[in-house]
Amino acid sequence: MKKILTLVYILIIFNAEKSFSQDMKFGKFSQAEKDITAVDFEPDADAVVLEEYSVNNFNGGVLHNHYHKRVKILKESGTRHGNVVVRYFFGKSGVQNINKVSAQIVNFDGDQEQIIKLTKNDFYTVDGGNGWQEIRFTLPEVKVGSIYEFEYNMQDKGISFLDSWVFQNRIPTLKSTYSIKIPSYLNYRLLAQGDKTLRTEAKQYDGMYKWELTDLYSIKDEPYMSNHLDYLERLDFQLAGYVSANTSIVGGRSFKDSYSNWQELTDFLFETNDFSSYLKPSKVLMTSFRSNGEENTKELEKAKEIYSYVQQNIKYNDRIGYYPSQDLKSTLEKKQGSRADINLTLLAQLRSNGLNAYPVMLSSKGNGRSRLVDSPFLDQFNQLIVLTVLDGREYYLDATNEAYTFGHLPLIFHVDQGYLLKEKDAGLISLAFHHRSGINQIGNIKLNENGKMQSQIHVRFSEYDAISKSELKNELGEADFGKEIFDISGESLEILISEKDEPKKIMDVNISGKEIELNQQMLMISPFTYVRWHENPLKADTRTFPIDLLYTFNDLYSTIIEIPEGYELDDFPEPVEVVIPGNIATFTYKVEPLGNTVKVSSGINFKYSFIPAAYYPELKYFMGLVSSKLKEPVILKKTQQIASAKD
Amino acid sequence: MKKVFPVLIVLSLFIFVRESFSQNEDQYYSTIEKNDQIIINDDFSVEYILHEKLTVLKPEGWGQAVRRIYTNPTNRLISFEAIVTHPVSGKTIKKFKLKNLTERTYLDDVNIFTDSKIKTFEPSGIAAPFVIEFKIVKKSEYNFFIEDWYPSLHFKQKVKHANLKINYPTEIGLRYKMEHLIAEEKIEDIPSGKSITWSFEDLPILDPDEEEVAKIVLVPDQFKLGENQARMDSWENLGRFIYQLNEGKDQLPEDFKIQVHRMVEGIDDEFEKMAVLYKYVQENYRYVAISLGIGGWEPRNAEEVIKTKYGECKALTTLMKAMLQEVGIASQYTLVYAGSDYTKLNEEFPQNTFNHAFLRVPIQDEVYWLETTSRTLPPGFSGNFTKDRQVLVVNADGGLLEKTPDFSDFKFNSYHGEYHVDLNNMGDGIITGTARFDGFLALPFIESQYYKGEKELKINLIEGVNANNLFLKSIETSSINRKNVPQVIVNFEGFFQKYVQQTGKRIILSGNFLQVDVKKFENEVFRAQESIIVKLESDFEIESGAGKQVFAKDYFTYTMEVEDEIDQISIKNTLEVKFPKGSSKELKARTLNELNQLSKQSIILKKL
């Protein structure tokens, strides 16, 4: 069912030296470029990238890049694309540097071309902080039909991981080209991603490799989509090896591979100062660890205590990353750190208490790499968590957020694979997240002491549903939270909330519903006070990217209505049983009259949380059906009326 | 507004003392002691000499030792020193100087570039508990804007002691306003003019639920900005200054003047002329903000905007004003604090508290407001960005305050729908319809028409009527503005999943197609009118809901008229909602609940 992206692993070694000439020349336009007024495959587009290219050559250990981009404005709203920002990483000492920036805009009046070139004063350099810089400029006289272009040179000393090349832009792109010439003394691994990129063979010309893609859709967000970056058409290069002088080998040179396997990479990381400070903490630092020396304490209990301790005592500074930002000593002193710092601190403390614990790197949803390449390519990752095996069961831990109880991870971490770092047998592993999330509503509607019909509802949110509700409650406060989730704003109804973390995370909400007077001939009773979707959450009629609901769940709704004296059950909704093709989800609904009670029960079960776009129409219909069905009423009618009707 | 008088009497210090209890140390992460001084010099420059002693008690308070200082070419950081000592031994742990600060450009969502920078200090390598003493000196070349003074800017911080002393030349003058603080100032004569001192002891910890933060607002009477010197002691004088700043910026090139006249040739009506010229500005000039030097206040001139085809709000407004002037329509450059975080102006306390410029255009008995940075708003309709607030209208005589419309008129908040639904036995419907959205309800469509496309327009309709089960086959929209009221007409065809609820014996319809939500009540009023024909496949009879029903409640009147027309049902409904100004969210939500109970399950059909 899941679309599988096949990723290609190519080893590229070049020898030839010859320059590569580009087709697009600054200031020279084809008739087609002048004539284009709309994009066939994206007719609503208000601007289009006519062409862009990136040409890359090495000179020693520096990558020299020449970049050129050309954009045409198709509609009035497209003039907003006249501001340009070029971002690069300068670091402390010019890791990347940009120069020879030029830009111009051309407006056409019949055969006449009005060209406005930007001068030096029109380019502003902005310091974005943390080593990032930007060159910003705005084009004058942008209007419908304008074509603007700009180019620059970049020198990049950071050649272990080359900048990704993404073929797409925020507007459609007619042609995007990436060329690279790699000298014989360097060896790069290539990661290609995206349907078109994978189907495109690189053209070779005198040692230069060139990928050219055409007619590319714009990058657009959609709701329920956490990882659209995974679907971008892109190329990444990682340094796999370089020639080193070695006189013992004939010719005096040999290839030094950077990391040929995961274990090598792991060994390298473990030897770094920051990493090793957590793996081999000093005895002095260990005195500040949480320790539980009690003999009979189970492993799981011990681990939970340590986890809780780290969560509460070290503050997360919102910095992500797979590598620690500081050593253990600094983390313990400052009592704050990045995700990697905090989780490695957790690891250190678990280990010091005799529990096993291993770092796991992963690429969270939205990072662009939730499907990993089985090659020691470190740039794939952006997060670090901990794996521990306790009493025979695996747990994945992230101690940065107190809302997440032991064994629960942020939902964007629910990916298929991670990189397990171990002293032996390091490598990619499959990740499985065991939980039983869902909503369980049990209700009872009957006469109260005031002689009115009233519902008493108990709703239990479990695991990830409980976590999300708990976070919302903390954000809104208890009173507003109750109103928000029960859609009873403005009504002051009794709500009681309780939460538990053991044996699993749950939130229980008890609510007394509104009273219903019995002075009506017909009582229309909605059986369910709280449902997952009050309305269909999917509004668009088409979908480009898969839908990501983030986690699977199983909801159960059950209400018993006690028919008051003087009334009888007259009518109720018909049963339903629906399955989305591929067994993605099921919905059941039934009504069971039982003497003077009526039981209404329903279930929603999503077996898959990640649904391909091809199933979108069925999913939208399914959600519409569910949200409507759960609102259908049970109808009670006064018996006197029925008796008189019989007469 | 408080004026300072030359007095000889030294007022006794009145120290604000809370009930004598010691606050639980668990409630805060740090304590602070401040002794700050502000000196306004004869040349209108302002020096800030800040001396603070921060005691960070817990690791969570580490962030409170971070300092961010905003600078630009006329506001400089002169010196910076931070000495960290041990809280018990007093031993110096580390010293930091100016060179330890990192610097980056100040970036916001408005300016493509600005010469403002942020210098940041972080006490790296220091762990709590620690004491850090700051000595910071800043200087502004001009006193046009004097920084507000805060005893504390952090929650979980205890102010043990905070002192502010401000010296200023008498001729320049100073006004001040305390917000959420109580203390009597001590005023003294000094050789250079006057000195005012405030002292605060043991202030309550800031409450995160409180939106207002304690501060002293400082405003000069006389000020300088660039080469300009003026007074700010009245709105009139402030307006006069703005007028002077803008003088000469509105000159139009001769050929452009001819073009302007040509655009309105044959049009007599002034509103129409304004509409044509406004549309021209919207279509031809885009909003780009570049803020350099005192350029935050001084607009680029109209000629530059014409040449480059872009400008910031001040420049676009100046251009628009000049174009209207050219065709004989007078208008006024107006300053406003735009956006949703607007706080009410204190009329008695003139100060520069504006972040945006737009245009006031009086035509006959009406006043219209032109938002020149918008490419989609109709002429004379300025929308949410600047609604319902006091603004400073600027003209040659000076400035005066005026209020912008609150749009609490039905014409800006109404909707009309006509629908035909062919229902099948599953309760699904094939639907054709025409919906008209007036005022604010039309804006999402207008934006999507301009910036996006059909996919977004469909979503706008689904959201506009809250019909999430509507699958649209086709949609056609047209904008027909009625003078300054945006209006959009939407024609569509589609499939409505589960248009009705069903039980074994019955079909239950809602009395309205559009499902009202609280957002519709944003401007306190809302009007809706619908006509719906529902055709059913199978035979039925109306069990309840037939005839005319009128529900007149506290804040709304809802009428519904249902007729059985053999194989179809005709439903006509009207709704008028009107809340008192400033009604709470809770009241609106309760009213919505009441309305939904009446309308949602209002028509019951029995299957025959």
Walk me through this protein's architecture.
Chain A: This is Transglutaminase superfamily protein. Chain A: InterPro entries: DUF3857 (IPR024618), Papain-like_cys_pep_sf (IPR038765), Transglutaminase-like (IPR002931). Chain A: It comes from Mongoliibacter ruber. Chain B: It comes from Mongoliibacter ruber. The complex is a heterodimer of chains A (647) and B (608). Chain A is 17% helix and 38% strand. With 647 residues, chain A is α+β, with helices and mostly antiparallel strands. Chain A is globular. In chain A, 38% of the residues are buried. Chain B is of the alpha+beta class and 608 residues long. Chain B folds into three domains: 205 residues, Immunoglobulin-like (Sandwich), CATH 2.60.40.3140; 161 residues, Roll (C8orf32 fold); 194 residues, no CATH class. Chain B contains eight helices and 36 strands. Chain B has an eight-stranded mixed sheet, with no helix packed on it. The longest helix of chain B is centred in the middle third of the chain and has 15 residues. The N terminus of chain B is likely disordered. Classes of the chains: A alpha+beta (647), B alpha+beta (608). Chains A and B meet through strand 7, strand 8, helix 7 and helix 11 of A and strand 6, strand 8, helix 7, strand 29 and helix 8 of B.
In short:
Chain B: This is Transglutaminase superfamily protein. Chain B: Residues 43-204 form the DUF3857 domain. Chain A has 647 residues and is α+β, with helices and mostly antiparallel strands.
The portion of residues forming beta strands of chain A comes to 35-45%
Number of strands of chain B: 36
Contiguous low-pLDDT stretches of chain B (5 residues minimum) are: 1-23
Number of domains of chain B: 3
> What is the CATH topology descriptor of the largest domain in chain B?
Immunoglobulin-like
Relevant terms:
heterodimer, A: 647 residues, alpha+beta, Immunoglobulin-like, C8orf32 fold, Jelly Rolls, 3 domains, globular, disordered C terminus, B: 608 residues, 8-stranded mixed sheet, 36 strands, disordered N terminus, DUF3857 (chain B)
